[in-house]
Write a structure and sequence with these properties.
Blueprint lengths: L2 H8 L16 H20 L5 E6 L13 E6 L6 E4 L2 E4 L11 E7 L8 H20 L3 H25 L7 H11 L1
Antiparallel strand pairs: 1-5, 2-5, 3-4
Helix pairs in contact: 1-3, 2-3, 3-4
């Protein structure tokens, strides 16, 4: 879904005509774009299959690790490493320094533009933005109930897709492994 389509899906709910460009000079379009961006950031910070990657971080000659440009969050694979991103570099909280001992692997969450989101995520962001844009000016009306229903449907689809893509299995948990081992004896 592109940004113009999302904006044009929200505008009629706010008693506005659709537009041909995403022009921030139009106050309602500017408001909607702001709400879309806030909700996009919210969704991406939760972490889904489409914005979670495994990455190996390497040291610069100065012994530091630079932050990738589109990084939202970083979780080192080695739980003993207490690293966090500060500014444009990785910081070692345990030793209070930007000097990192060795390259490391981490699971990261990356920032994506609205157009890069899967359809279910884009729809969730769009309808949440519609609610956030509508309520302050018009209050809670029957239209909000419809918007909330559409957002709930899109979010349920997003959750369903996420569960399919990450392939969760109760049998891969410690209790599940214990159960499987008991069947073998």
């Amino acid at each position: 879904m592109d940004l113009l389509t999302a904006v044009n899906n929200i505008l009629p709910w706010m008693e506005e005509n659709t537009v041909t460009t995403v022009d921030t000079k139009h106050p309602t379009v500017a408001l909607i774009l702001n709400k879309i961006d806030l909700n996009r950031e919210k969704i991406l910070s939760e972490g889904y299959w489409f914005n979670t990657e495994n990455k190996k971080f390497f040291l610069t000659p100065a012994g530091e690790v630079m932050k990738p440009t589109n990084l939202i969050a970083m979780y080192p694979k080695d739980k003993a490493l207490n690293y966090e991103v500060r500014g444009d570099r990785v910081y070692d909280l345990g030793n209070s320094t930007y000097q990192i001992a060795a390259p490391f692997e981490a699971s990261i969450r990356v920032d994506l533009t609205f157009e890069e989101l899967p359809e279910s995520a884009a729809r969730t962001v769009m309808w949440r933005a519609g609610i956030d844009a509508y309520v302050p000016d018009y209050g809670v009306a029957a239209a909000v109930q419809v918007l909330m229903q559409r957002e709930a449907e899109a979010f349920a689809l997003l959750q369903r897709e996420h569960l399919r893509k990450v392939n969760y299995s109760a049998m891969r948990t410690p209790p599940g492994m214990k159960y499987l081992n008991s069947l073998r004896t």
